[in-house]
From TrEMBL, chains A, B:
This is Beta sliding clamp. Confers DNA tethering and processivity to DNA polymerases and other proteins. Acts as a clamp, forming a ring around DNA (a reaction catalyzed by the clamp-loading complex) which diffuses in an ATP-independent manner freely and bidirectionally along dsDNA. Initially characterized for its ability to contact the catalytic subunit of DNA polymerase III (Pol III), a complex, multichain enzyme responsible for most of the replicative synthesis in bacteria; Pol III exhibits 3'-5' exonuclease proofreading activity. It comes from Anaerobutyricum soehngenii. Belongs to the beta sliding clamp family. SUPFAM superfamilies: DNA clamp (SSF55979). Forms a ring-shaped head-to-tail homodimer around DNA. Residues 1-119 form the DNA polymerase III beta sliding clamp N-terminal domain. Residues 129-241 form the DNA polymerase III beta sliding clamp central domain.
Amino acid sequence: MKITCPKNQFLYGVNTVSKAVSNKTTMEILQCILIEAFDDCIKLTANDTELGIETVIQGTILEPGKIALEAKIFSEIIKKIPDNDVYIETDEAGKTNIECEQIQCSIMGRKGDDFSHLPEIEKENKITLSQFDLKEVIRQTIFSVSDNENNKLMTGELLSIENNKLTVTSLDGHRISVRNIELQESYSKMEVIVPGKTLSEVSKILPGEAKDTVNLYLTDKHILFEFGDTKVVSRLLEGKFYNIGQMLSNDYETKLTINKMELLRCLDRSTLFVKESDKKPIILKIENEQMNLMISSQIGSMKDQISISKEGKDIVIGFNPKFLVDALRVIDEEEVTIYLMNSIAPCIIRDETSSYLYLILPINVSNSNV
Amino acid sequence: MKITCPKNQFLYGVNTVSKAVSNKTTMEILQCILIEAFDDCIKLTANDTELGIETVIQGTILEPGKIALEAKIFSEIIKKIPDNDVYIETDEAGKTNIECEQIQCSIMGRKGDDFSHLPEIEKENKITLSQFDLKEVIRQTIFSVSDNENNKLMTGELLSIENNKLTVTSLDGHRISVRNIELQESYSKMEVIVPGKTLSEVSKILPGEAKDTVNLYLTDKHILFEFGDTKVVSRLLEGKFYNIGQMLSNDYETKLTINKMELLRCLDRSTLFVKESDKKPIILKIENEQMNLMISSQIGSMKDQISISKEGKDIVIGFNPKFLVDALRVIDEEEVTIYLMNSIAPCIIRDETSSYLYLILPINVSNSNV
């Protein structure tokens, strides 16, 4: 193989596909980026067998061929060479010369015959949405994905499409995050569970312009994200996602509206008093037009109060403040509305139209000093 | 104790003295910041017994007293409270209330009777220099301090004053860094060895304005840095520093002048090919008006070339590229001059007046393929 591309093309390509390079494996081929130069197209691919990314870069093919290069050293060389044309040449044995200006680097590559290509995805069930929307919806739900591999389904997010609505749901046993997006077109009902890791890597490489779109293709086993010259293919998590419908009751005994930043800052401060080994709750005491917040642990204690507007009953309820913080951070509205039933039922933070909904389980505070 | 200070005063104070809070100890008092409010002066102190820092902050004393607060939680509370006046009140038992606007925090403090104050330093041997100069000279020499505690003296830097010259020297067995600064006044000859950690912490809290000065006071056992309302006291390292005079010969067989950034970028790239377990040198082959650079390791190989101007013999010599990179990074000149004797003698990078001098030992490359 002999190719020439500007450094910035390699840099873009390597940064894009590197997200699918495995760093937890001992299989050397999974730590590689495959460069293929055929038919006027220079393609970079990485694939850790769960998640695969390929992208096309602009350059000139002087002699077609392919080579698999160890991702770490190749990307570091690309980063550190001058901003100029880069010439790459490989020999029969896999020895790869990377040249830029007067600099000549040489590393050993692999022929790449054992490289696992991205699976071919049937392009039947296609959904189109704006890159901005996809990136946002990932940010707004990814934090409540579980990192506990024992409960595999909780490590993914449910993408469910019906008519012109995409609903994204994640949950970790303590809380549920739901976001709804309106789509331009209407689709038949589809549901897939996408690994959290896939979504988080996709959100990193998506440019995220509102005017640009991303196409999603769904099959039984895979999801394909296609944007620009980049394709991301991921395995799906198999199984039946949790039925959360019955938890999302619209009933409430207390409804309160509160300034988001004020509440967020107070809760964020209160996390200073949470000890890993002894998770004390923050206790919210809602009385008339005021929320009193209290936390007390081995570290110390904090009290604060915030004005609210309230409909319904007074209530005392405790939460892990971090869970409230996570939800409030991804809500863009200036004011949030919180719905409460009683001190042992979950609270729900949602807007009027349920474009977002965050459910958080309380911590029992009946024995606490309040 | 009852005091009120603006948040930003506490923040400044805590950030300043925190550098002397020990985080390697199990002695709880060493993890504390002492707040003392007496005689119209609110003073914050931290002292890990090697290094101590105290600073004065502006505020109002409502009731004099003192308290030692755990540095980590106190500084986090200060960071997270609103930008407004902060009221601190302690009771007999050490319980400390920190109040800001409607927020009330409470943590347990210690009476601070077991807190070790900074030692009193005789203010006899005083040296004055600009904060900028001190900060710069630390940055330009600190990297070649050894982190190996077995060779205690190498973990410090020699500050030697004679007439109107301050010379700062550090070495780690592989290289030597020397910087000379001209002082405004003349002083009698003095030499102290200051722990590298002290200098690195001082450089972090020194504002570093060229127009502002810092006073150094030297005793047998201690050095005191005084600037603004802040005092830093450190133990000195005791012993006789290495005599480096005989190594800093002015003789050379090869003198070459080279563009600093070009050399630095090339060497920096070459570090990609250095493996922790197998430190291959970068080989410099100096021939006529050209430097050829080569490195070859298990990872791969790199060749580069740079134009130079040369006096004297051609030479081939090898170095750990990281050591050259460290020195070149802190030289501000556009061109550097390198003096070489032979392939087993150290190279010296210095300017005409020896305001700086970096000596680096070579790696024997006689067996390498060059």
